[in-house]
Structure formats: C-alpha cells, structure tokens
Input
Amino acid sequence: MEKEVKLLKGNEALAHAAIRAGADGYFGYPITPQSEVLECLTEEAPWETTGMVVLQAESEVSSINMVYGGAACGKKVMTTTSSPGFSLMMEGVSYLAGAELPCVLANVMRGGPGLGTIQPSQADYFQAVKGGGHGDYRLITLAPNSVQEMADFVGMGFDLAFKYRNPVLILSDGVIGQMMEKVHLPEQKPRMTDEEIREKYPWATVGHKPEERSIITSLELSSPVMEQNNLRFQEKYDTIEKNEVLFEESQTEDAEYIIVAFGSGSRICQKVVELCREQGLKVGMIRPITLWPFPSKRIAELANQAKGFISVELNAGQMVEDVRLAVNGKAPVYHYGRMGGMLFSPDEVMAAMKDFFKF
Output
C-alpha cells in the first residue's frame, strides 16, 4: 500500500504521526514554536476515528503528569512543548524514568535562557542528554533534521520507549517545527485493547485481580533496594548505548576535517561540506541522530584519520563536550555556534573553519 503524502509543518507531522502510531493520548499546553501540534490534533479530531484522547491541560506540569498516568496504564501517550515548558516538566520526566514508564516527549527548542525568544535554538542539549531532572537517568534522545523525520521518529520513539520501558525525547527546534516539507505518512496502526496491554505489558495498571496487583512508583524508601533499582537502570542504559546508536555521514571517507552537527544546524552544514569540496577542501560531516546514546565510537574511529573537528551548534557549545570526549585528544576539536535564536550561515561556518584550521 502506498504511503500517504502531505505537505506539512514539522509540528503538524508530529500530530499526524501520533495518530497513525496508534497513540492513546496526547496531553499538552500551547507554547510557541510548537503550538501547531495541539491545534492540528484538535482539527484532526482523532477521538472520532481512533478513539485517541486529546486534552489541553492547564499547564506543562499537568501535561507531564497526565502522561505519567496514561503511561502507567500501558497506554501510548505523548506530550510536546518548547524549552521553558520542558523545564517545567523536569520533575515529571525524572519520575517517569524512575518508574520506568514508556512515553514520547517532544521539545521544539527556542532561544533562552529564561523565557527567551520564540526563535530556534539548540541550547537544551545538556538538559536533554545529561538529565535536566534529578537522579541518574537517561532519555533516549532523537534529533530530527527534517519534517519527514519528525513524523518517522514518533513511531520509532514509541517502539524504543516500550522496548526499554524508558521515556524517549524528540529534540527538535523552531526551524524544523515551523518549516513545511513533503511528508510520507506511515500507515495507521490500531490502538491496543486493554486485554492486549495486559498480555503484552503485565506491569501495566489496567485492572488485575487483587493477587496480581501492579504497583507503579518511583518511590523506594529502602536505600539498598533503591541502589539495586539504579544498578538495573544503568544496565538498561548500557544496553541502549550498545544497540541504539544512530547517525548519518556525509563524505567522511577521505575527510581531513569533520563537522559534527545535529538537527536544523546539520542542514546548513551540509551546504558547508559542498562549498568546501568545491574549493578542494576534504571536509565531511557526521550527524548524530541519537544525541543519547551518542555516536562516540564512530567519532573515535574518524579521529584516527582527521586533522580536526568542529562542532557546529545553535548554542554556546554543549555537544562539543561529547565530541571532545569521543576524540579523546587525537585531534583538535573546536566549537562554532550562535545563540539566542540566531541562525548561522554557511559562509559564517566556513569562515570559522578557515580561522580554526588555517586552510
């Protein structure tokens, strides 16, 4: 069967993909530049077709706790927000990780800190991959660089979330959320019945006999038990790091200088690679698709051939720390970025590279 093709904004792609992934519920609160997700879901009215619940909560705090409740019942649930809203959700995100509940979250980043601006940014990298909430937890973090990937990563996110009983974050920004591109939408998946959830996810609180009670909590008052819980979490994170790393490479085969960029910034840097190649400069690019787990192993391999790396980000330099850890001193690693909602141009990136690498 041919996939359905639509011209959509990135935010609209998130909404359509959620319906087609067989999501049971969406709980969100409007905030620019991601408000189209809730608007699109309201227009599509999936409660009349698939039975999916769509609810505007009174705040981001309410949204994330509604996600907690739905996820505890084994339901496919999702929320989306933008940077200040994601900060408000941090307590709930930590609880979701501690209770090992699957869900899909999306942060369409904007400039900050504070309320900042409504323009695009990548300044929430640390918050996403280092843990913005309390405790030793990890979020599987997917970084789309197209409207198509905004759609694709919803279904992938739910699959990973339930595979590992862990929240999955789609880390996008205002460029990807607002741009319009042609999107191949996936086929509609049916929502699972409660009976199917009981059979597939016995941990879920969907109604059991008294002797089969399922208890979902992130609270554990016994320190030895809490330590064992944390050790189990860390084993799970190790498994994810081994099995779920995703990245994309461009002209790295003979590259002497390598750009590392993700999300919308990687689209600008692809043009930089083309311009450099036209000038005879051996420049390639690696785009981390999973920001956590990070493609450290592949970057370490590239460090054996490269004369230098540049991490190009819409922030003051956050991913560059992970690049430096991966390169481990084998080559110089520089950062170039712009902040506060400002985009860099290909010419600006090239000028920075010529300054760093003395082309």
Remarks:
- The CA atoms of residues 106 and 170 lie 4 Å apart.
- The radius of gyration is 21 Å.
